[in-house]
């Protein structure tokens, strides 16, 4: 599991793009991945990344922060956070999330979300936008710094390999 994560991070850091573009793609993917747009997140993140001149691969890869294993805890937290912010009494979000997760078709998922109206969608959207912003901004800063440092380190290692230790 850790090897896969390291491989994923290395792949992202080695994308042929600027640190800014990669970090912006990550931030866009995180933001979109936290919105209740299940089934459309890849398309939305690709479109937004294209218009923002961000790395599309980085953006698409991050929408998977909400997947069949994480969707219920992530959206539950976001919903309750949205209820707290809007001073709304929480409804039966858990049963709705289970219904959405069990639904295979995009139209089925969408119809469940639409049928819930403002009582669930309002706090969910407000919570997701706020949590998305709170996660995307620090992710951009952190990833940009990490990509720069990774590339500087890789350059130094390459220099040592080419010139030996006396070249430094």
From TrEMBL:
Pfam family, one: DUF2062
InterPro entries in the record: DUF2062 (IPR018639)
Transmembrane segments: 21-38, 120-143
Statement: the UniProt record of this protein carries the keyword NADP: no
Highest taxon of source: Bacteria
Segments forming domain DUF2062: 3-155
Assigned keywords, A-Z: Membrane, Transmembrane, Transmembrane helix
Name of this chain's protein: DUF2062 domain-containing protein
Originating organism: Candidatus Wallbacteria bacterium HGW-Wallbacteria-1
């Amino acid at each position: 599991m850790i090897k896969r994560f390291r491989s994923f991070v290395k792949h992202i850091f080695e994308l042929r793009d600027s640190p800014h573009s990669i970090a912006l793609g990550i931030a866009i993917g995180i933001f979109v991945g936290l919105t209740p747009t299940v089934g459309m997140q890849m398309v939305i993140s690709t479109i937004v990344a294209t218009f923002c001149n961000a790395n599309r691969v980085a953006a698409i890869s991050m929408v998977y922060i909400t997947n069949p294993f994480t969707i219920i805890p992530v959206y539950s937290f976001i919903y309750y956070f949205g209820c707290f912010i809007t001073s709304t009494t929480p409804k039966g979000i858990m049963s709705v999330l289970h219904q959405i997760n069990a639904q295979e078709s995009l139209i089925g998922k969408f119809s469940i979300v639409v049928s819930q109206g403002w009582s669930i969608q309002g706090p969910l959207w407000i919570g997701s936008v706020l949590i998305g912003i709170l996660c995307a901004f620090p992710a951009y800063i952190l990833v940009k710094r990490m990509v720069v440092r990774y590339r500087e380190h890789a350059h130094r290692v390459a220099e040592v390999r080419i010139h030996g230790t006396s070249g430094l």
